[in-house]
Write a sequence for this structure.
């Protein structure tokens, strides 16, 4: 297979090489391309980031291969996808739970939600799949009460990043459906939003009022920018058309912030706090 790939690199469209190699990877795991259009595209995208696309298991597992940190990042993603394969219905099936988590996040009690919330990462870049997390970035910090209330919900995890004086610098929130939110103050927010690159802003007020978040449209737009038509019919997210004719290259830059504990920073797990009787009464009255 490696011989074919080297030949194809000289005689075929660059993306044809990636897709052929990726198809062979799928077949090696007994996975057909039918009903796996998103997985195929994501694997082909990861393959496009490598100097030579991987076409079989031996190449994928070759521990002697000399790879840059950026290349190894994409190889890790290929291994993740193949170890946990998914079809197009599983991608679409993630959406209701993510929307539920997003609404619970912005409607949390205990204080006003921070001013801005961005969806970043794969949801914007045309590579959202069955194993993707929903990465988000918020400007400002949750109140202690709000953080505790979220931490009390099943499947939610909240961590505070503390400086040497014990002040909260950042918060990290994980949701049951695979959402991950970094809450940071303005200077870091601007740096991180630049590092994440492409993003879309969630209209927090609209979501709090019960309207759609725009997440599905953002994911669709990411694939459409690659040249696909996107269908959400039949409980599946299906990519239609030929897609990109040239590899979509992503620039790799290291995460801009490191907070090692040996520099005096601490990661503290937030304990859950049950609602007060006033909050319970408010919920009851609101439901009437």
């Amino acid at each position: 297979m490696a011989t074919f790939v080297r030949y194809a690199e000289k005689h075929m469209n660059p993306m044809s090489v990636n897709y052929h190699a990726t198809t062979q990877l799928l077949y090696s795991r007994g996975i057909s391309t039918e009903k796996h259009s998103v997985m195929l595209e994501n694997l082909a995208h990861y393959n496009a980031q490598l100097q030579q696309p991987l076409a079989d298991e031996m190449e994928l597992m070759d521990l002697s291969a000399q790879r840059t940190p950026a290349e190894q990042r994409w190889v890790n993603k290929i291994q993740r996808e193949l170890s946990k394969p998914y079809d197009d219905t599983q991608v679409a099936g993630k959406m209701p739970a993510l929307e539920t988590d997003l609404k619970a996040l912005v409607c949390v009690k205990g204080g006003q939600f921070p001013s801005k919330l961005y969806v970043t990462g794969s949801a914007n870049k045309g590579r959202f799949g069955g194993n993707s997390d929903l990465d988000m970035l918020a400007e400002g910090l949750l109140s202690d009460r709000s953080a505790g209330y979220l931490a009390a919900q099943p499947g939610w995890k909240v961590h505070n990043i503390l400086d040497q004086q014990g002040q909260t610098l950042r918060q990290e929130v994980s949701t049951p459906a695979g959402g991950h939110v970094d809450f940071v103050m303005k200077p870091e927010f601007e740096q991180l939003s630049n590092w994440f690159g492409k993003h879309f802003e969630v209209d927090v007020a609209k979501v709090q009022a019960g309207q759609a978040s725009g997440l599905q449209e953002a994911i669709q737009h990411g694939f459409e920018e690659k040249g696909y038509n996107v269908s959400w019919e039949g409980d599946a997210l299906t990519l239609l058309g030929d897609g990109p004719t040239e590899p979509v290259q992503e620039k790799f830059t290291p995460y801009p912030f490191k907070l090692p504990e040996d520099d005096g920073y601490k990661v503290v797990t937030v304990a859950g706090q049950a609602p007060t009787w006033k909050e319970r009464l408010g919920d009851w009255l609101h439901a009437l």
About this structure: The first helix runs from residue 2 to 11. Residues 1-12 have pLDDT under 50 and may be disordered. Strands lie at 116-120, 134-139, 157-162, 168-174, 179-184, 200-201, 229-231, 238-240, 266-269. The longest strand covers residues 168-174.
